[in-house]
């Protein structure tokens, strides 16, 4: 079995690594990892390793921040009504929540509005603006949305409703005519870091306001909620995003916010009780997202802003239940999408998969699009059609900007927006074919030749004897991991000492690999399919991350496998010995053949016959009538590749005695036992031939 991924190894700058090691007293491994992430200047290293609140940039470096603060302070002074307009995803929910809490704590008459995903769709809309205006709002602040709402802001201006926009999405050619437009991606914005999530931009507004209100120390408690939105929006965990998450993960398990605390309780953490980007991305964020995906995202905001413990616990439980419903709905759509793709699309010749249906809940198609992209390793667009309008979500692969692809066909859309890896859009359903053709033409012209090859990049190759607890503890200091700061991956090589399937359903893989008498355990979740390809005493290359397994008070290093590359010599040798066996059959086990078998210790013993027959009997009891030859050799403990000759001789003799029938083709054995027969091995001519020549 071949590796699933193309393995890349980061190019090392030996001189730079040596300089970093000497200057900062880093190990070569840590120096290599920092070099690979281009963290090499002294201020960058200090900022990366010592992330604290003093390292945040001045919020007033953001274009229009001064205008936004001036208008909000005027609203506070004049006791105007302020409404926060947020998006319905986790980034929008957390952005709305922190700004609402901050303004409320500062005596502001504040409300919030989250559009209904199913009825209103993404972004500002005129109907919502009119309702907000009628409700006597004088100032509307957007969070995580608004950068493309040019006509909607113009409409608000005709009503006399002032708007301050905070967003982080890509800007189009023009920006809205609002009181202030804060977006680090504005071309005329010189802010040092343009990869904040929407909640990060909202926090910068809070930071700027707090400086004028002289209560800066009150804002740091929001960091854990800011971290949830930051991780959920899959922005790079570098620079200010790293500071946000690093500070938050230290305290989030015991969060001051009763809503977040309740959500963590129902979502669960890892065995150590640690909060990580993975815990947020795979446990906390999906539960928050479930509310918005199935309709009403306001419950997510209610969870964070409530001061009632019972209400928080109730909302968290509801979100947990809705997440289960969402998972079931998602699986149904995924199965249908795969069916359509397999039936109608030549995936190999398609660069961007575009699929649509009238039956899909467009609240979850973004997640399904992610799964389709993961399965086929191609950018994908999934569209749900209702009343002639197709609403869709797009996901991409590394190296292909899906937002730019959509910009190439922007005239097709009623509305669209997003960034390099994800986007959303709506269009008339009769234009779906034009969309499909247009984005595939863009991909044909702009996609690099290797973009659609799944890759894993390792930081370096290390020896197993270099891996120990102190090293891993040093690597842990580089957390939190995420986009932009991936968990360090390593390649190591050795000889397989043991391999087995583990887990309740035997779908995971565990192996012990040795190098110069140093062992390490390798754990591969969902990698049991490799079992038949991994053979005892053969060389193997592992690619994975390092962690510490703590059990009964004992700490032990282990490698968490991402991919493996078994040495094919064992398989090649088996094929070689199969050809030798065939020649023996053709020559009716000549004296030369039997001499070879005797010298190689390959003539089967009675114990070999018994062991093999019992193994086949056991397989048949489990309704197995075909098996790879390598797996069967493991079962009967034949560790050397030449022992395939012994196994095949046993099968040949069983076949002569009519104990079974079998076929062997390309490493696969199919068999059928004829049970209930009593025979003697001596009745086989092959057996006697081998006995005679002994």
Automatic annotation (TrEMBL):
It comes from the Bacteria. One of its GO terms (biological process) is DNA recombination. Residues 459-563 form the RecJ OB domain. InterPro entries: DDH_dom (IPR001667), DHH_sf (IPR038763), DHHA1_dom (IPR003156), RecJ (IPR004610), RecJ_OB (IPR041122), SSDNA_exonuclease_RecJ (IPR051673). GO terms for molecular function: 5'-3' exonuclease activity; nucleic acid binding. Residues 350-444 form the DHHA1 domain. Residues 81-230 form the DDH domain. Signal peptide: none annotated. Keywords: Exonuclease, Hydrolase, Nuclease. NCBIfam families: recJ. Belongs to the RecJ family. This is Single-stranded-DNA-specific exonuclease RecJ. It comes from Vallitalea longa. The lineage of its organism: Bacteria, Bacillati, Bacillota, Clostridia, Lachnospirales.
């Amino acid at each position: 079995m071949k590796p699933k991924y193309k393995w890349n190894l980061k190019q090392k700058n030996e001189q730079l690594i040596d300089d970093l090691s000497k200057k900062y007293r880093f190990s070569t491994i840590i120096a290599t990892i920092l070099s690979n992430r281009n963290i090499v200047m002294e201020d960058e290293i200090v900022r990366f390793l010592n992330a604290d609140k003093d390292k945040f940039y001045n919020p007033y470096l953001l274009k229009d921040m001064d205008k936004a603060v001036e208008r909000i302070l005027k609203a506070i002074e004049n006791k105007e009504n302020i409404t926060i307009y947020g998006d319905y995803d986790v980034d929008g929910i957390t952005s709305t929540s922190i700004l609402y809490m901050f303004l409320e704590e500062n005596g502001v008459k504040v409300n919030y509005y989250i559009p209904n995903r199913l009825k209103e769709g993404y972004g500002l809309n005129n109907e919502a603006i009119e309702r907000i205006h009628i409700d006597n709002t004088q100032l509307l602040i957007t969070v995580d949305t608004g950068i493309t709402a040019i006509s909607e802001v113009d409409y608000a201006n005709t009503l006399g409703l002032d708007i301050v926009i905070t967003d982080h999405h890509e800007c189009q050619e023009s920006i809205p005519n609002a009181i202030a437009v804060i977006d680090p991606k504005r071309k005329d914005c010189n802010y040092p870091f343009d990869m904040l999530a929407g909640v990060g931009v909202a926090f910068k507004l809070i930071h700027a306001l707090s400086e004028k209100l002289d209560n800066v120390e009150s804002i740091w408690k929001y960091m854990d909620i800011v971290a949830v939105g930051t991780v959920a929006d899959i922005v790079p965990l570098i620079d200010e995003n790293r500071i946000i998450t690093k500070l938050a993960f230290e305290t989030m398990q015991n969060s001051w916010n009763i809503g977040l605390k309740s959500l963590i309780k129902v979502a669960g953490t890892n065995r150590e009780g640690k909060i990580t980007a993975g815990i947020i991305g795979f446990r906390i964020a999906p539960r928050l997202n479930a509310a918005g995906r199935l309709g009403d995202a306001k419950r997510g905001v209610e969870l964070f802003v409530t001061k009632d413990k019972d209400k928080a616990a109730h909302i968290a439980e509801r979100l947990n239940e809705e997440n289960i419903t969402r998972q079931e709905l998602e699986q149904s759509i995924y199965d249908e999408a795969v069916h359509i793709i397999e039936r109608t699309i030549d995936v190999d010749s398609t660069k961007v998969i575009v699929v649509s249906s009238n039956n899909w809940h467009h609240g979850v198609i973004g997640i399904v699009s992610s799964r389709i992209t993961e399965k086929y390793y191609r950018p994908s667009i999934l569209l749900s059609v209702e009343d002639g309008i197709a609403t869709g979500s797009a996901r991409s692969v590394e190296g292909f900007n899906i937002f730019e692809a959509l910009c190439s066909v922007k005239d097709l859309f009623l509305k669209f927006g997003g960034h390099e890896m994800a986007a959303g859009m709506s269009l008339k359903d009769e234009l779906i074919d034009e969309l499909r053709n247009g984005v595939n033409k863009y991909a044909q012209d702009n996609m690099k030749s290797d973009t659609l090859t799944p890759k894993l990049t390792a930081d370096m190759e290390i020896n197993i004897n270099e891996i120990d607890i102190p090293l891993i503890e040093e690597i842990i200091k580089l957390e939190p991991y995420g986009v932009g700061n991936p968990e360090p991956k390593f390649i190591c090589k050795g000889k397989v000492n043991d391999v087995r399937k583990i887990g309740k359903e035997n779908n995971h893989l565990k192996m012990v690999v040795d190098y110069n008498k140093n062992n390490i355990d390798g754990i591969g979740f969902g990698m049991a399919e490799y079992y038949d390809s991994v053979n005892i005493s053969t060389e193997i290359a592992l690619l994975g991350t390092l962690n510490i397994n703590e059990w009964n008070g004992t700490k032990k290093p282990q490698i968490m496998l991402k991919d493996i590359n078994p040495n094919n010599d064992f398989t090649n040798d088996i094929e070689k010995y199969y050809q030798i066996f065939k020649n023996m059959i053709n020559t009716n086990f000549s004296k030369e053949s039997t001499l070879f078998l005797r010298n190689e210790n390959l003539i089967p013993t009675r114990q070999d016959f018994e062991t093999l027959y019992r193994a086949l009997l056991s397989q048949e009891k489990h309704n197995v009538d075909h098996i790879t030859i390598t797996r069967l050799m493991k079962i009967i403990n034949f560790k050397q590749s030449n022992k395939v000759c012994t196994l095949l001789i046993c099968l040949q003799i069983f076949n002569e005695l009519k104990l079974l029938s079998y076929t062997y083709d390309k490493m696969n054995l199919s068999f059928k036992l004829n049970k209930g027969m009593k025979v003697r091995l001596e009745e086989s001519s092959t057996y006697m031939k081998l006995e005679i020549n002994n």
